[in-house]
Amino acid sequence: MTVFVDTSKQVGDRDHLKVFATTDAAETWFGENDPEGVAFEYDVLEKIEAAAALRPRPSL
Which of helix, strand or coil describes residue 54? Predict the structure, then answer.
């Protein structure tokens, strides 16, 4: 997953963040809309169970 943050927009503005499923999708968008833009790639958890496993468990 690739995330683009438009720092000229305020947090909450619909154009502040753009999330792309693939690097190719991000590169295509940048080529057409913002050739000088910068994006960062983040790992995405594929299963909700994986995210739940990372949460601390309450002590009994």
Answer: helix
CB-based contact 18:6 (threshold 8 Å):
yes
Residue 12's φ and ψ, nearest 5 degrees, are: 100, -20
Q: pTM to 2 decimals?
A: 0.54
Domain that holds residue 15: 2-54
Is 59 within a domain?
no
DSSP string spanning 2-52? EEEE-TTSPTT-TTSEEEESSHHHHHHHHHHH-TT---EE------HHHHH
Domain count, the chain: 1
- Contact (Cβ atoms closer than 8 angstroms) between residue 26 and residue 4: yes
- How confident is the model over 4-38, as pLDDT tens digits? 778 888 988 988 888 888 888 888 888 898 888 77
